[in-house]
Protein: Maltose/maltodextrin import ATP-binding protein MalK
Organism: Nitratireductor thuwali
Amino acid sequence: MASVRFDGVTKKFGDFTAVSDLDLEMGDGEFTCLLGPSGCGKTTTLRMIAGLETPTSGRVHIGERDVTFMHPKDRNISMVFQDYALYPHMNLADNIAYPLKVRGENEAKRHARAREVADVLKIGQLLERMPSQISGGQQQRTSLARALVYPSDVYLFDEPLSNLDAKLRLEARGFLNHLQRDLGMTAVYVTHDQAEAMALATRIAVMDAGKVVQYAPPLEIYRRPATTFVANFVGNPPMNLLPVDATIADGAVHLKAEGLSAAPLPVSRAAARALQGNGKLTLGVRPEHLAVAESGERNMISGQLFANENMGPETLVTLEREDAVRFTARIFTDDSLALDGKVTLGFASEHVHLFDSNGTRLP
Ligand code: ATP
């Protein structure tokens, strides 16, 4: 096992900067998720660890080794791809054992080790089959087994679950979490699925346009998103965001917007200084922190009922305001809620997030 470190790494394709001046240290035994929308540079970052791309500038280290220009096969890494990339003409046993064959292990040893890993991954009974004769979930586990058959310093995953249907995906996610607990491997895992990152990562690097915008443990990212981009990306449904006018008085910020009543919120001196008396802010509240308001609550927002979706254990109630901003409440009840016309949602002050006009969280 080993740590991975990026020092000032930039990767350009022609004039286009895919990864921009990246500094990132992923600890030994950590499971790091690179999370972000399509095109933000996640895969390029992963491929630079693998040696499938070379940085335009900067350095990549695995443990103490500077691997910036090292050939992929000398890096002692394993990679699991989105499309599994199994060899169609080999049965599962040979597919799984392939990394050992490349390293010159004899056949008996190769097959014994392949069986061992396949048993752990619950595909031991399928070893004689060809890839075309097994399900997508089994192919995914075969590809995982091939990555785990040889002890590597770092395991790299490029959206390995994205070709699975929703049910298998959940099962495979739980399995990966279990594996990580067992093996304590150093892993870097690319995904655009925030739930996957929350469930698997010890730390998440949220990326946007070639940069890491926040790098923190999952709960920290959920509780204190650094920007509106992160707030919007992590959480399902995403955080509700509303532009508001803000005035500082008596060490508290007073928020104003049509259809909003909000109790003054104490703010730090740094935030008060940044606001310089008054200005525009963005108010954020997560759907799970909103409920249908009782009259006279301290914090309330109103609008017309837009949607009322009962999902079984929870109901999503969405209102639409005059300014077309929608607010969704995630209410944990298996009763359907009888609502119509004007709806008012309430929230507690402790669940308010505030961001400045650049979308950066107030200090
Ligand atoms: P996705 O989730 O869609 O895979 P990503 O976050 O992994 O996205 P990358 O694959 O790292 O994104 O790509 C980052 C940007 O760099 C994209 O705009 C992509 O089009 C561009 N890019 C990637 N590889 C190349 C290449 N070989 N040549 C030119 N541009 C590239």
